[in-house]
């Protein structure tokens, strides 16, 4: 009996994984070309950027804020990355891109953490600023990758059967998940997200923690941008447009509390996978790509509704 | 006597931070940009921002209520497409009615999801944003739809003494919204629920009903914004306003001084916010600044205004205590 109960609790906690499996099976039934090895690898490649970005966003949302600037940051980082790879070679270019991401995160983190401005509006402002910087840097032009180097392998190559970008994504996810679960920093983020006031009284520097979450979000967006630029072998100035909504959708599907205070990096990844499967699946079964938005809409509402009811029931039992 | 008068002005300025910010922006623009301070340009400023303003009115209700609506702009693109695409089959009047009904229905769905299903307003309206966006792409088949009716287009581009019909509608709606917020039971309930939902509930206010109505109002203004948009531009494309116009509407309301936490604000603040953001882009246009520098400045100014607003609020709090 107890085993069954335990099993039930476990399944309840993994609803999102079950949902993902169901969506996967549904698409497999609808189209024979969906459930194939190549397509699965394609989905993994496609999800790499979002999976990495989701890690940073999860931390920001757990800290009780939003970062709407990541989409524009990806555009900027892609343009800078491809431009610099052409000039300096891959390694220095990638380091500079990471620095760009960190600086952008630092600015919004400072505004939100230290000046206590509303994160949504601040990052909206940053979104405009970064879009403009992208256009200034790229001069509005499309930048192709001119130099042949190992840089393209990051997004296009694979080790054995696994794409390299997927491996990088998994490493990033494991690092972020461990940081959140097992380090002092992670516990501070969770604490600040659930109650910043209490944290301040117990000696946690809440401003700095929030700043750090934004810096990490910036860095994760930069890593995502590197993978994306390397996969596409070129950069456009509207590459990351609207990414922030996909990433936030994934984080929400992963069950992170939007008020802050709880969340899980692995589940965010599952949420991102759902978004990616929908994107891919709708194209594979021959529906226009924009029908995925309607599906996303329903899945988001249903997922959050179920989560809410589970929480309510838990409250009643207690 | 004189001193109390000055004090009164000072406290008015401190409470309504949008007024000094607006005055500074306006004076700065008038002094530094020759072509700014002319009747035609100021009217132009009003006419260009009237549709954004109408949506900001609906957003004001929801924000005072303590929530916000992300779906308003994709809803706008959906109703713009519907009101122009249905004209040949249903006739202009009916097409507009259908578009407005769709707007209201989406608002009602948002309200239902937030109040009855208890879904976080950000998630619910984000989901509806995606839904409306998908619906508008599916309906228009990724094409720009041109409204055929001449009366419809004439309404969108017509003016009286330089003020467009849309602006007149906007001003009328401002007064209606002001009246509703200030003198009706629903308006007072909105402030109460936004200020403190629990105590409002304990005082016997039907919080769910108030929130629901406010989302419906917001949906309606979104629908109206779409119809007017189609009439104003003479075209409806599904990608209009994506990805940042709805954030601009929220930003206008917040820059105007309505608190995102709810309970504080009025429609005049939102008007101020809309005008400030409109003025920025207008001035940068007049200065012949490249479009991307103007985006850059808009972003920076949003942040600066938010900071100034915060500092002024802090000062006021310090004085009180």
Summarize the structure.
The complex is a heterodimer of chains A (about 325) and B (about 325). Chain A has helices spanning about 1-15, 15-30, 35-60, 70-90, 90-115, 120-140, 150-155, 165-180, 185-195, 195-200, 205-230, 245-255, 265-285, 290-315, and strands spanning about 145, 160, 160-165, 235.
Verbal overview:
- The complex is a heterodimer of chains A (318) and B (321).
- Chain A has helices at 2-13, 15-30, 37-62, 70-88, 90-114, 119-138, 151-156, 164-182, 184-194, 196-201, 206-232, 243-253, 265-284, 291-317, and strands at 143-144, 158-159, 162-163, 234-235.
- Chain A has 318 residues and is mostly helical.
- Chain A has a single domain (38-308), classed as ABC transporter involved in vitamin B12 uptake, BtuC, CATH 1.10.3470.
- In chain A, the strands form 2 sheets. In chain A, strands 1-4 form a two-stranded antiparallel ribbon. A two-stranded antiparallel sheet of chain A has the order 2-3.
- In chain A, strand 2 (158-159) and strand 3 (162-163) form a beta hairpin.
- Chain A is globular and about 65 Å long.
- The mean pLDDT of chain A is 87.
- With 321 residues, chain B is an all-alpha fold.
- Helices cover 78% and strands 1% of the residues of chain B.
- Chain B is built from 15 helices and 2 strands.
- In chain B, a hairpin with a 2-residue loop joins strand 1 and strand 2 (163-164).
- The chains are: A mainly alpha (318), B mainly alpha (321).
- Chains A and B meet through helix 6, helix 12 and helix 14 of A and helix 7, helix 13 and helix 15 of B.
Report the average pLDDT across residues of chain B.
85
Examine the coordinates and then state which fold CATH places here, giving the name of the CATH topology of chain A: ABC transporter involved in vitamin B12 uptake, BtuC
Largest sheet of chain B: 2 strands, antiparallel
- The residue ranges of chain B in which pLDDT falls below 50 over 5 or more consecutive positions are none
